[in-house]
């Protein structure tokens, strides 16, 4: 296809691509920078002056007070006039925003597919600063040193591939052992007023330092990496007012475990959670990061906090004084890092920190929240195991210096009474900096003295990389963790393990009892001398009194790596873990006619759609990982897991039937219930169904990130206009779209509905109404076959036009 220069300009202006080959810190304006920082801090400081200029334009149009989240988000909009003018102020929950994020972070598991897709776009370097973090592939078993060695040996081809991509495209490479993505981002890149994307659902952790940080799939990351505006429906804003001050055993974790109980796993969907109120000033920066981190568990787009003194202290402690000065100035002079007086929230929740008690959430869902004072009763009432089988602390959610120092105070008390943990105790430091600092300050010796195992600075048990051998598979047991997520089988691969989430302090207190009904606030332990004693509430320091230690300097990548275009990307053609991508076929230009491969019953998270654990090793090999597609899903018609039926009634494993239908040229749809695709931002949950011939997911509701991921891969996500229609459609039914072409020709912006004709196998026919949320750009992705196809086509056309 040839393209005229006029059409090319139109295409370019629709997506407003950044110029090829230019790279900077998302400088959106030619305004002079008045908040200057030394050169080595430049790519880590938001372009405050340009953002303020853009915010002025937004204010002119909207003419109302703005919340903090609105200020940060809207000042990253490519064209405020296009986004906000003529909308009668109907922005939140209505308007699609085209945004230019400042930075991208990618973890090793999801980075593989992000980079494989980025490679297809033919660029020499990334358009914005980016980082790769090797954290998800490290197994926890024997302790840091041995586990790290073994995991590097097993995953070397993946790490070599990522390292070669980093070298070629000028991306920071944080190798295995350096730490967990979100902790490293907090220590190095998160800054008040920053807007970033991360290929991991707990990217909002960076909100603890006043950023807007959003978890996305690899294809979204490629938008930012290629300088293509990233699209997001303007979220509503949920204001959480904090009053009072935490005390005693209560910790920042309890703010979010409590809130998860109030909001449920769906309650934050479509919202940014913005904290405000005098209680905010009492929290540490890392405590706020914990709260933002777990905002992902209520489905929120992200969470953020206004600029506080504790953020400034954290920036100074992490060697970013000039950035702290710039942030203070931009806030003091322009109020950029706090909500305007009179700003309104769509919803508000109030939490009095002074009255907040510790909470324990679970099992199997993070919103089943029980105050500690009622937990013993809940254990009994629900017949949860009465004995604890292991306690795990750390991870990206809770491994701050403050967490570790408070935990150490509990362990020291127990030691003084001659008491040892009753169950295995694991500690996962979030980064090399944390590991080195807690070692320097004596905490590691305290933990080891109690028999704890300190694992590598990596995700380990939090993502199923726990080579657990003390509890047989299938044996019901209870673990307490300070992690953020507790879907079935997430930690040790045992679906019968009940994971309860709580603060590191409560995990630690309870390992000394081993009894799930133990409440450290009122139940006593028995010391070595036979006398009973009550643990004192934990004490700790917000920041290390003698400063953070950097540890092994070999882990530190250059601050601003330059691309090396001649570098080779390392992928073996015989690898079963990495394979270069073939583009998906473009849309055929006619109405879809599909068969229903199965109806999924109940919860269907991205863990059900694209299982993690052992499958993580195939993240870079689409064909191999697709053998896990929907293997965790339950068939609504038979109650079986991983079972679907062909037209002749023959039963298959779900991916087997997908492969068979793909070979037969039979495109398919899957039906599902509510919040389809909740959980981790797992891009393969969209890529694999598409790769195996899936063209439509029709459900009662979607989790936001997953719906977007499906659109990016050319799968049509639809929801029932009337939920009851789910019951009308049977397995193997033929589903035909009646007005898809009309919607596509209108650029998505028509009724918001698509009509389907459904013919069940018994001849029963129904015409049902479904809803779509396709924007103009998403329609373009669908037509091109995928977002990457579209961006790659545009890039090639732009390059060709530049060369003529
Ligand atoms: Fe890693 Fe767990 Fe954090 Fe995800 S939530 S980044 S798996 S530590």
TrEMBL record:
Its cofactor is [4Fe-4S] cluster. Binds 1 [4Fe-4S] cluster per subunit. Coiled coil: none annotated. It is an enzyme of class 4 (lyase). GO terms for molecular function: 4 iron, 4 sulfur cluster binding; aconitate hydratase activity; metal ion binding. Its EC number is 4.2.1.-. It is found in: Mitochondrion. It holds the Pfam family Aconitase_C. GO terms for cellular component: cytosol; mitochondrion. Belongs to the aconitase/IPM isomerase family. This is Aconitate hydratase, mitochondrial. It comes from Lipomyces tetrasporus.
């Amino acid at each position: 296809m040839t393209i005229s220069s006029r059409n090319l300009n139109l295409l370019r202006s629709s997506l407003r691509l950044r110029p090829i080959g230019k790279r900077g810190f998302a400088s959106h304006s030619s305004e002079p920078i008045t908040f200057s920082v030394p050169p080595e801090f430049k790519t880590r400081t938001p372009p405050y002056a340009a953002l303020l200029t853009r915010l002025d334009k937004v204010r002119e149009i909207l003419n109302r007070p703005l919340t903090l989240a609105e200020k940060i988000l809207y000042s990253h909009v490519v064209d405020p006039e296009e986004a906000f003018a003529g909308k009668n102020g109907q922005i939140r929950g209505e308007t699609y925003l085209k945004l230019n994020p400042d930075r991208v972070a990618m973890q090793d598991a999801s980075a593989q597919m992000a980079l494989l897709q980025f490679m297809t776009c033919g660029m020499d370097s990334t358009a914005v600063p980016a980082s790769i973090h090797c954290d998800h592939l490290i197994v926890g078993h024997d302790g840091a040193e041995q586990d790290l060695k073994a995991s590097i040996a097993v995953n070397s081809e993946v790490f070599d591939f990522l390292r070669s991509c980093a070298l070629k495209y000028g991306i920071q490479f944080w190798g295995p052992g350096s730490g967990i993505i979100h902790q490293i981002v907090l220590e190095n890149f998160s800054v008040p007023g920053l807007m970033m994307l991360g290929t991991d659902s707990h990217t909002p952790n960076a909100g603890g330092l006043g950023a807007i940080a959003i978890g996305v799939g690899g294809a979204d990351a490629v938008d930012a990496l290629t300088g293509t505006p990233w699209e997001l429906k303007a979220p509503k804003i949920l204001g959480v007012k904090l009053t009072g001050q935490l005390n005693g055993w209560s910790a920042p974790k309890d703010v979010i475990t409590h809130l998860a109980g109030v909001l449920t796993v769906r309650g934050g969907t479509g919202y940014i959670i913005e904290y405000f109120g005098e209680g905010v000033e009492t929290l540490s920066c890392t405590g706020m990061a914990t709260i933002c981190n777990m905002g992902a568990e209520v489905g929120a787009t992200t969470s953020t906090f206004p600029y506080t003194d504790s953020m400034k202290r954290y920036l100074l402690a992490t060697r970013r004084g000039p950035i702290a000065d710039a942030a203070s100035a931009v806030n003091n002079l322009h109020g950029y890092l706090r909500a305007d007086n009179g700003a309104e929230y769509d919803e508000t929740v109030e939490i009095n920190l002074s009255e907040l008690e510790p909470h324990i959430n679970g099992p199997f869902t993070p919103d089943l929240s029980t105050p500690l004072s009622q937990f013993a009763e809940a254990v009994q009432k629900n017949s949860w195991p009465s004995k604890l089988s292991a306690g795990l602390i750390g991870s990206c959610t809770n491994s701050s210096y403050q967490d570790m120092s408070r935990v150490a105070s509990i362990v020291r008390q127990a030691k003084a009474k001659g008491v040892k943990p009753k169950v295995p105790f694991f500690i996962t430091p979030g980064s090399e900096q944390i590991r080195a600092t807690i070692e320097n300050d004596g905490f590691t010796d305290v933990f080891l003295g109690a028999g704890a195992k300190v694992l590598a600075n990596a995700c380990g048990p939090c993502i199923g990389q726990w080579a657990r051998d003390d509890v047989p598979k299938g044996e019901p047991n209870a673990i307490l963790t300070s992690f953020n997520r507790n879907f079935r089988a997430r930690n040790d691969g045992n679906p019968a393990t009940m994971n309860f989430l709580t603060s590191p302090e409560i995990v630690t207190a309870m390992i000394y009892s081993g009894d799930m009904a133990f409440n450290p606030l009122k139940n006593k332990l028995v010391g070595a001398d036979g006398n009973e004693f009550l643990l004192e509430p934990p004490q700790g320091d917000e920041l290390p009194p003698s400063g953070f230690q950097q540890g092994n300097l070999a882990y530190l990548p250059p601050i601003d790596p330059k691309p090396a275009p001649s570098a080779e990307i390392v992928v073996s053609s015989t690898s079963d873990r990495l394979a270069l991508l073939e583009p998906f076929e473009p849309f055929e230009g006619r109405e879809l006619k599909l068969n229903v491969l199965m109806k999924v019953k109940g919860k269907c998270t991205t863990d059900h759609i694209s299982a993690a654990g052992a499958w993580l090793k195939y993240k870079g090999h689409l064909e191999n990982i697709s053998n896990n597609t929907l293997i965790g899903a339950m068939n609504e018609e038979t109650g079986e897991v991983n079972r679907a039926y062909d037209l002749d009634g023959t039963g298959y494993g779900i991916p087997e039937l997908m492969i068979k239908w793909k070979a037969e040229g039979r495109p398919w749809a899957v039906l599902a219930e509510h919040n389809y695709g909740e959980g981790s931002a797992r891009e393969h949950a969209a890529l694999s169904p598409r790769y195996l011939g899936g063209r439509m997911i029709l459900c009662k509701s979607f989790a936001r990130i997953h719906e977007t991921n499906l659109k990016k891969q050319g799968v049509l996500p639809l929801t029932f206009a009337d939920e009851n229609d789910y019951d009308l459609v049977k397995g193997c039914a033929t589903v035909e779209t009646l007005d898809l072409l009309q919607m596509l020709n209108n650029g998505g912006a028509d009724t918001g509905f698509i009509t389907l004709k459904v013919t069940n196998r018994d001849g029963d026919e129904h015409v049902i109404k479904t809803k779509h949320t396709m924007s103009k750009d998403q329609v373009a992705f669908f037509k091109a076959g995928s977002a990457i196809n579209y961006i790659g086509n545009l890039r090639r056309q732009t390059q060709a036009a530049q060369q003529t």
